[in-house]
Amino acid sequence: QVLLVESGGGLVQAGGSLRISCAASGRIFSINGMYWYRQAPGKQREWVATITTRGTTSYADSVKDRFTISRDDAKNTVYLQMNSLKPEDTAVYYCRLTQASGDYWGRGTQVTVSS
Predict the structure, then answer these.
(1) Strand pairing of 31-39 and 77-82?
(2) In terms of C-beta density within 10 A (0-12 exposed, 13-18 middle, 19 or more buried), how is residue 115 classed?
(3) Is 62 in contact with 73 (CB distance < 8 Å)?
């Protein structure tokens, strides 16, 4: 089993920055990728960013050039640095990990951007 715990969410003013983290623990091996998703009130969950085991990153168009995904393999932690935040970035942010044994999700961390 794999446990993912997100942290670092909070309230920030538009134009500000925030870094959220996702710590993975448990039976972790042969990770395929780690991902961030978000879900705003009344909307479907949407993909935000991916980082593969090789370090290749990709981003949704809505966050490209503002958000940066990174990871610390020694800590089994993935980060999302969010800059130039906008009110439309307000959502619950979820971490996801895929590996040979399955597909795992965290419970999310709330990010609220005030205008």
Answers:
(1) unpaired
(2) exposed
(3) no
